[in-house]
Protein backbone atom coordinates (compact mmCIF):
# COMPACT_ATOMS: atom_id res chain seq x y z
CA UNK A 1 0.00 0.00 0.00
CA UNK A 2 1.35 3.43 -0.95
CA UNK A 3 1.06 6.01 1.80
CA UNK A 4 0.34 9.62 0.86
CA UNK A 5 3.27 10.90 2.92
CA UNK A 6 5.66 8.61 1.02
CA UNK A 7 4.23 9.80 -2.30
CA UNK A 8 4.59 13.45 -1.27
CA UNK A 9 8.18 12.80 -0.24
CA UNK A 10 8.90 11.39 -3.70
CA UNK A 11 7.28 14.42 -5.29
CA UNK A 12 9.40 16.73 -3.14
CA UNK A 13 12.53 14.88 -4.23
CA UNK A 14 11.55 14.77 -7.90
CA UNK A 15 11.81 10.97 -7.96
CA UNK A 16 10.51 9.00 -10.95
CA UNK A 17 7.19 7.35 -10.09
CA UNK A 18 6.00 3.86 -10.99
CA UNK A 19 2.54 2.70 -12.10
CA UNK A 20 1.05 2.31 -8.61
CA UNK A 21 2.37 5.68 -7.55
CA UNK A 22 1.04 7.25 -10.73
CA UNK A 23 -2.44 5.96 -10.00
CA UNK A 24 -2.16 7.18 -6.40
CA UNK A 25 -1.45 10.71 -7.68
CA UNK A 26 -5.10 11.00 -8.67
CA UNK A 27 -6.09 10.61 -5.00
CA UNK A 28 -4.31 13.84 -4.11
CA UNK A 29 -6.46 16.97 -4.10
CA UNK A 30 -6.20 18.99 -7.29
CA UNK A 31 -4.42 21.94 -5.65
CA UNK A 32 -1.67 19.77 -4.19
CA UNK A 33 -1.27 17.94 -7.48
CA UNK A 34 -1.18 21.24 -9.37
CA UNK A 35 1.48 22.58 -7.01
CA UNK A 36 3.94 19.82 -7.84
CA UNK A 37 3.16 19.83 -11.56
CA UNK A 38 3.52 23.60 -11.73
CA UNK A 39 6.85 23.45 -9.92
CA UNK A 40 8.22 21.19 -12.67
CA UNK A 41 6.75 23.45 -15.34
CA UNK A 42 8.20 26.64 -13.82
CA UNK A 43 11.62 25.05 -13.36
CA UNK A 44 11.70 24.23 -17.08
CA UNK A 45 9.83 27.09 -18.72
CA UNK A 46 9.20 29.84 -16.18
CA UNK A 47 6.04 31.69 -17.19
CA UNK A 48 6.38 30.98 -20.91
CA UNK A 49 3.38 29.52 -22.73
CA UNK A 50 3.96 28.28 -26.26
CA UNK A 51 1.72 28.50 -29.30
CA UNK A 52 2.21 28.31 -33.05
CA UNK A 53 0.58 29.84 -36.10
CA UNK A 54 -0.81 26.84 -37.90
CA UNK A 55 -3.55 25.64 -40.18
CA UNK A 56 -5.42 22.36 -39.76
CA UNK A 57 -6.60 20.69 -42.96
CA UNK A 58 -8.76 17.57 -42.87
CA UNK A 59 -8.81 16.42 -46.51
CA UNK A 60 -11.55 13.77 -46.31
CA UNK A 61 -14.09 12.43 -43.84
CA UNK A 62 -14.81 9.15 -45.67
CA UNK A 63 -13.54 6.36 -43.45
CA UNK A 64 -13.09 2.62 -43.74
CA UNK A 65 -12.88 2.17 -39.95
CA UNK A 66 -15.81 2.31 -37.55
CA UNK A 67 -14.74 3.91 -34.26
CA UNK A 68 -17.40 4.26 -31.61
CA UNK A 69 -16.00 7.53 -30.24
CA UNK A 70 -15.76 9.35 -33.58
CA UNK A 71 -18.20 12.03 -34.74
CA UNK A 72 -16.17 12.97 -37.80
CA UNK A 73 -16.54 9.91 -40.04
CA UNK A 74 -19.09 10.42 -42.82
CA UNK A 75 -19.98 6.74 -42.95
CA UNK A 76 -21.99 6.94 -39.74
CA UNK A 77 -23.64 9.86 -37.97
CA UNK A 78 -22.26 12.43 -40.39
CA UNK A 79 -23.99 11.95 -43.77
CA UNK A 80 -22.10 14.79 -45.46
CA UNK A 81 -19.24 13.08 -47.24
CA UNK A 82 -16.45 15.12 -48.73
CA UNK A 83 -12.97 14.78 -50.20
CA UNK A 84 -11.00 17.92 -50.99
CA UNK A 85 -9.21 18.20 -54.30
CA UNK A 86 -5.51 18.98 -54.43
CA UNK A 87 -6.42 22.38 -55.88
CA UNK A 88 -8.67 23.14 -52.91
CA UNK A 89 -5.98 22.10 -50.44
CA UNK A 90 -3.32 24.20 -52.17
CA UNK A 91 -5.65 27.24 -52.26
CA UNK A 92 -6.20 26.82 -48.52
CA UNK A 93 -2.46 26.64 -47.84
CA UNK A 94 -1.85 29.68 -50.08
CA UNK A 95 -4.48 31.72 -48.26
CA UNK A 96 -3.17 30.64 -44.87
CA UNK A 97 0.43 31.35 -45.86
CA UNK A 98 -0.57 35.00 -46.28
CA UNK A 99 -1.71 34.88 -42.64
CA UNK A 100 1.79 33.83 -41.64
CA UNK A 101 1.28 30.16 -40.82
CA UNK A 102 4.43 28.21 -40.04
CA UNK A 103 2.79 24.77 -40.08
CA UNK A 104 0.12 22.88 -41.99
CA UNK A 105 -1.35 20.00 -39.98
CA UNK A 106 -2.94 17.38 -42.24
CA UNK A 107 -4.90 14.48 -40.78
CA UNK A 108 -8.15 12.88 -41.86
CA UNK A 109 -10.18 9.71 -42.15
CA UNK A 110 -9.07 6.38 -43.64
CA UNK A 111 -10.49 6.80 -47.12
CA UNK A 112 -9.91 3.76 -49.38
CA UNK A 113 -10.80 5.85 -52.44
CA UNK A 114 -8.04 8.45 -52.20
CA UNK A 115 -4.94 6.31 -51.89
CA UNK A 116 -1.26 6.52 -51.15
CA UNK A 117 -0.29 8.54 -54.23
CA UNK A 118 -3.08 11.03 -53.55
CA UNK A 119 -1.60 11.84 -50.15
CA UNK A 120 2.05 11.84 -51.21
CA UNK A 121 1.38 14.01 -54.24
CA UNK A 122 -0.27 16.73 -52.17
CA UNK A 123 2.64 16.70 -49.73
CA UNK A 124 5.05 17.12 -52.66
CA UNK A 125 2.97 19.99 -54.06
CA UNK A 126 2.87 21.79 -50.71
CA UNK A 127 6.62 21.32 -50.29
CA UNK A 128 7.31 22.66 -53.80
CA UNK A 129 5.01 25.68 -53.56
CA UNK A 130 5.52 26.53 -49.90
CA UNK A 131 9.03 25.34 -48.99
CA UNK A 132 9.16 27.21 -45.68
CA UNK A 133 5.95 25.73 -44.24
CA UNK A 134 6.41 22.74 -41.94
CA UNK A 135 4.28 19.75 -42.95
CA UNK A 136 2.93 17.77 -40.02
CA UNK A 137 0.91 14.91 -41.43
CA UNK A 138 -0.41 11.35 -41.15
CA UNK A 139 -1.11 9.81 -37.80
CA UNK A 140 0.13 6.33 -36.94
CA UNK A 141 -3.44 5.16 -37.56
CA UNK A 142 -3.31 6.53 -41.10
CA UNK A 143 0.10 4.96 -41.70
CA UNK A 144 -1.26 1.61 -40.49
CA UNK A 145 -4.26 2.01 -42.80
CA UNK A 146 -2.07 2.78 -45.83
CA UNK A 147 0.25 -0.09 -44.94
CA UNK A 148 -2.58 -2.61 -44.93
CA UNK A 149 -4.24 -1.16 -48.04
CA UNK A 150 -1.07 -1.31 -50.12
CA UNK A 151 0.69 -4.28 -48.55
CA UNK A 152 3.68 -2.14 -47.63
CA UNK A 153 5.63 -2.20 -44.39
CA UNK A 154 5.43 0.68 -41.93
CA UNK A 155 9.05 1.46 -42.77
CA UNK A 156 8.24 1.68 -46.48
CA UNK A 157 5.34 4.08 -45.85
CA UNK A 158 7.54 6.20 -43.58
CA UNK A 159 10.31 6.33 -46.16
CA UNK A 160 7.84 7.49 -48.80
CA UNK A 161 6.48 10.16 -46.43
CA UNK A 162 9.97 11.53 -45.83
CA UNK A 163 10.72 11.55 -49.56
CA UNK A 164 7.44 13.40 -50.17
CA UNK A 165 8.21 16.25 -47.79
CA UNK A 166 6.56 15.35 -44.49
CA UNK A 167 8.53 16.93 -41.65
CA UNK A 168 6.90 15.56 -38.50
CA UNK A 169 4.09 13.30 -37.33
CA UNK A 170 1.08 14.29 -35.23
CA UNK A 171 0.15 12.13 -32.25
CA UNK A 172 -3.36 11.11 -33.23
CA UNK A 173 -4.70 7.56 -33.24
CA UNK A 174 -3.27 6.68 -29.84
CA UNK A 175 -6.63 7.02 -28.05
CA UNK A 176 -6.10 4.72 -25.02
CA UNK A 177 -3.51 1.96 -25.25
CA UNK A 178 -5.39 -0.59 -23.11
CA UNK A 179 -6.60 -3.12 -25.67
CA UNK A 180 -9.86 -3.98 -23.86
CA UNK A 181 -10.92 -0.35 -23.98
CA UNK A 182 -9.51 0.00 -27.46
CA UNK A 183 -11.61 -2.92 -28.69
CA UNK A 184 -14.72 -1.12 -27.50
CA UNK A 185 -13.97 2.38 -28.78
CA UNK A 186 -11.91 1.75 -31.93
CA UNK A 187 -11.77 -1.96 -32.70
CA UNK A 188 -10.01 -2.74 -35.96
CA UNK A 189 -7.91 0.40 -35.87
CA UNK A 190 -4.15 0.42 -35.33
CA UNK A 191 -3.29 -1.43 -32.10
CA UNK A 192 -1.37 0.11 -29.23
CA UNK A 193 1.72 -1.97 -30.03
CA UNK A 194 1.55 -0.96 -33.69
CA UNK A 195 1.10 2.73 -32.81
CA UNK A 196 4.23 2.64 -30.65
CA UNK A 197 6.16 0.70 -33.30
CA UNK A 198 5.31 3.26 -35.99
CA UNK A 199 6.47 6.16 -33.84
CA UNK A 200 9.65 4.28 -32.94
CA UNK A 201 10.41 3.79 -36.63
CA UNK A 202 9.71 7.46 -37.30
CA UNK A 203 12.04 8.52 -34.51
CA UNK A 204 14.75 6.21 -35.83
CA UNK A 205 14.64 8.26 -39.05
CA UNK A 206 15.73 11.23 -36.94
CA UNK A 207 12.24 12.77 -37.07
CA UNK A 208 10.09 14.14 -34.27
CA UNK A 209 6.46 13.39 -33.43
CA UNK A 210 3.83 14.14 -30.83
CA UNK A 211 1.84 11.73 -28.67
CA UNK A 212 -1.80 11.95 -27.61
CA UNK A 213 -4.20 10.29 -25.19
CA UNK A 214 -7.97 10.48 -25.49
CA UNK A 215 -9.53 10.53 -22.02
CA UNK A 216 -12.84 11.22 -20.34
CA UNK A 217 -14.88 8.43 -21.96
CA UNK A 218 -14.97 4.82 -20.66
CA UNK A 219 -11.33 4.50 -19.65
CA UNK A 220 -10.12 4.32 -16.04
CA UNK A 221 -7.43 6.31 -14.29
CA UNK A 222 -5.33 3.14 -14.37
CA UNK A 223 -5.70 3.08 -18.16
CA UNK A 224 -4.45 6.66 -18.36
CA UNK A 225 -1.39 5.97 -16.22
CA UNK A 226 -0.58 2.82 -18.22
CA UNK A 227 -0.82 4.85 -21.44
CA UNK A 228 1.44 7.61 -20.14
CA UNK A 229 4.08 5.19 -18.86
CA UNK A 230 4.21 3.31 -22.17
CA UNK A 231 5.02 6.62 -23.84
CA UNK A 232 7.67 7.30 -21.19
CA UNK A 233 9.23 3.91 -21.90
CA UNK A 234 9.46 4.60 -25.64
CA UNK A 235 10.83 8.09 -25.01
CA UNK A 236 13.58 6.50 -22.90
CA UNK A 237 14.66 4.66 -26.05
CA UNK A 238 14.14 7.19 -28.84
CA UNK A 239 13.79 10.68 -27.31
CA UNK A 240 11.62 11.44 -30.32
CA UNK A 241 8.46 12.91 -28.79
CA UNK A 242 8.19 16.71 -28.81
CA UNK A 243 5.00 16.91 -26.79
CA UNK A 244 2.28 14.96 -25.03
CA UNK A 245 -1.29 16.04 -25.68
CA UNK A 246 -4.09 14.77 -23.42
CA UNK A 247 -7.22 15.13 -25.58
CA UNK A 248 -10.49 15.68 -23.76
CA UNK A 249 -13.23 13.44 -25.15
CA UNK A 250 -16.13 15.28 -26.80
CA UNK A 251 -19.49 13.72 -25.99
CA UNK A 252 -21.72 14.69 -28.93
CA UNK A 253 -22.60 12.74 -32.11
CA UNK A 254 -20.95 9.40 -31.40
CA UNK A 255 -21.88 5.88 -30.32
CA UNK A 256 -20.18 5.69 -26.92
CA UNK A 257 -23.08 7.58 -25.38
CA UNK A 258 -21.10 9.00 -22.48
CA UNK A 259 -23.78 10.97 -20.63
CA UNK A 260 -21.65 13.47 -18.74
CA UNK A 261 -18.44 15.12 -19.94
CA UNK A 262 -15.38 14.70 -17.74
CA UNK A 263 -15.13 17.38 -15.03
CA UNK A 264 -12.68 20.27 -15.10
CA UNK A 265 -11.20 18.93 -11.87
CA UNK A 266 -10.42 15.59 -13.53
CA UNK A 267 -9.03 17.29 -16.63
CA UNK A 268 -6.64 19.40 -14.56
CA UNK A 269 -5.59 16.36 -12.55
CA UNK A 270 -4.81 14.50 -15.77
CA UNK A 271 -2.64 17.35 -17.06
CA UNK A 272 -0.81 17.48 -13.74
CA UNK A 273 -0.27 13.71 -13.57
CA UNK A 274 1.03 13.80 -17.15
CA UNK A 275 3.60 16.47 -16.29
CA UNK A 276 4.76 14.62 -13.17
CA UNK A 277 5.07 11.19 -14.78
CA UNK A 278 6.48 12.27 -18.14
CA UNK A 279 9.83 13.49 -16.93
CA UNK A 280 11.39 12.85 -20.34
CA UNK A 281 8.84 14.43 -22.71
CA UNK A 282 9.50 18.17 -22.55
CA UNK A 283 6.18 19.73 -23.50
CA UNK A 284 2.64 19.12 -22.24
CA UNK A 285 0.06 20.63 -24.55
CA UNK A 286 -3.38 21.69 -23.34
CA UNK A 287 -5.04 21.48 -26.75
CA UNK A 288 -7.63 24.24 -26.49
CA UNK A 289 -9.79 22.69 -29.24
CA UNK A 290 -10.80 19.90 -26.84
CA UNK A 291 -10.41 21.50 -23.41
CA UNK A 292 -11.80 25.00 -24.22
CA UNK A 293 -9.51 28.03 -24.26
CA UNK A 294 -10.25 29.02 -20.67
CA UNK A 295 -9.43 25.61 -19.26
CA UNK A 296 -6.33 25.34 -21.46
CA UNK A 297 -5.07 28.56 -19.90
CA UNK A 298 -5.83 27.34 -16.38
CA UNK A 299 -3.97 24.14 -17.27
CA UNK A 300 -0.84 26.26 -17.65
CA UNK A 301 -0.79 26.32 -13.83
CA UNK A 302 -1.22 22.52 -13.69
CA UNK A 303 1.81 21.45 -15.68
CA UNK A 304 0.96 22.38 -19.26
CA UNK A 305 3.21 24.82 -21.13
CA UNK A 306 1.54 24.89 -24.56
CA UNK A 307 -1.94 25.64 -25.92
CA UNK A 308 -1.39 24.52 -29.57
CA UNK A 309 -2.08 27.13 -32.23
CA UNK A 310 -4.38 29.37 -34.18
CA UNK A 311 -5.70 26.36 -36.22
CA UNK A 312 -7.89 28.61 -38.50
CA UNK A 313 -10.30 25.75 -39.24
CA UNK A 314 -10.89 22.47 -37.41
CA UNK A 315 -13.32 19.73 -38.39
CA UNK A 316 -12.72 16.64 -36.24
CA UNK A 317 -13.26 17.89 -32.67
CA UNK A 318 -15.92 20.42 -33.68
CA UNK A 319 -17.98 17.61 -35.21
CA UNK A 320 -18.26 16.19 -31.70
CA UNK A 321 -19.25 19.45 -30.05
CA UNK A 322 -15.99 21.35 -29.49
CA UNK A 323 -16.03 25.13 -30.12
CA UNK A 324 -12.97 25.00 -32.37
CA UNK A 325 -14.38 25.19 -35.88
CA UNK A 326 -12.95 28.59 -36.83
CA UNK A 327 -9.78 28.73 -34.75
CA UNK A 328 -8.48 31.78 -32.87
CA UNK A 329 -6.82 34.89 -34.30
CA UNK A 330 -3.13 35.33 -33.50
CA UNK A 331 -3.44 38.62 -31.59
CA UNK A 332 -6.37 37.26 -29.60
CA UNK A 333 -4.23 34.26 -28.67
CA UNK A 334 -1.44 36.54 -27.46
CA UNK A 335 -3.84 38.66 -25.41
CA UNK A 336 -5.49 35.62 -23.83
CA UNK A 337 -2.14 34.20 -22.72
CA UNK A 338 -0.99 37.56 -21.36
CA UNK A 339 -4.24 38.10 -19.47
CA UNK A 340 -3.82 34.68 -17.87
CA UNK A 341 -0.51 35.84 -16.43
CA UNK A 342 1.85 34.05 -18.80
CA UNK A 343 4.40 35.10 -21.42
CA UNK A 344 3.23 34.21 -24.96
CA UNK A 345 5.96 32.58 -27.03
CA UNK A 346 5.42 31.80 -30.69
CA UNK A 347 7.23 28.57 -31.57
CA UNK A 348 7.82 26.49 -34.63
CA UNK A 349 6.66 22.89 -34.96
CA UNK A 350 9.66 21.45 -33.14
CA UNK A 351 9.64 24.04 -30.34
CA UNK A 352 12.26 26.50 -31.48
CA UNK A 353 11.27 29.90 -30.09
CA UNK A 354 10.40 32.39 -32.86
CA UNK A 355 9.04 35.39 -30.94
CA UNK A 356 8.58 36.26 -27.28
CA UNK A 357 5.75 38.74 -26.69
From TrEMBL:
Q: Which InterPro entries match?
A: Aldolase_TIM (IPR013785), CofH/MnqC-like_C (IPR045567), F420 (IPR034405), FO_synthase_su2 (IPR020050), MqnE (IPR022432), rSAM (IPR007197), rSAM_sf (IPR058240)
Q: Which GO terms describe its biological process?
A: menaquinone biosynthetic process
The answer to whether keyword Transmembrane helix applies is no
At the top level, the lineage of the source is Bacteria
So where does [4Fe-4S] cluster get bound? 63, 67, 70
Q: Which cofactors are named for this entry?
A: [4Fe-4S] cluster
Write down the EC number: 2.5.1.120
SUPFAM superfamilies per the UniProt record, alphabetical: Radical SAM enzymes (SSF102114)
Residues in coiled coil: none
List positions binding S-adenosyl-L-methionine.
69, 175
Short name of any one Pfam family annotated for the protein = CofH_C
| Cofactor stoichiometry and binding remark | Binds 1 [4Fe-4S] cluster. The cluster is coordinated with 3 cysteines and an exchangeable S-adenosyl-L-methionine.
Keywords from the UniProt entry: 4Fe-4S, Iron, Iron-sulfur, Menaquinone biosynthesis, Metal-binding, S-adenosyl-L-methionine, Transferase
Name the catalysed reactions: 3-[(1-carboxyvinyl)-oxy]benzoate + S-adenosyl-L-methionine + H2O = 6-amino-6-deoxyfutalosine + hydrogencarbonate + L-methionine + H(+)
UniProt keyword Iron present: yes
Question: Which PANTHER family does the UniProt record give?
Answer: AMINODEOXYFUTALOSINE SYNTHASE, FO SYNTHASE (COFH)
- Report the sequence similarity comment from the record: Belongs to the radical SAM superfamily. MqnE family.
Its biological function? Radical SAM enzyme that catalyzes the addition of the adenosyl radical to the double bond of 3-[(1-carboxyvinyl)oxy]benzoate, leading to aminodeoxyfutalosine (AFL), a key intermediate in the formation of menaquinone (MK, vitamin K2) from chorismate.
NCBIfam families linked to this entry = CofH family radical SAM protein, mena_SCO4494, PRK08444.1
Protein's name according to its UniProt entry: Aminodeoxyfutalosine synthase
Gene source species = Arcobacter porcinus
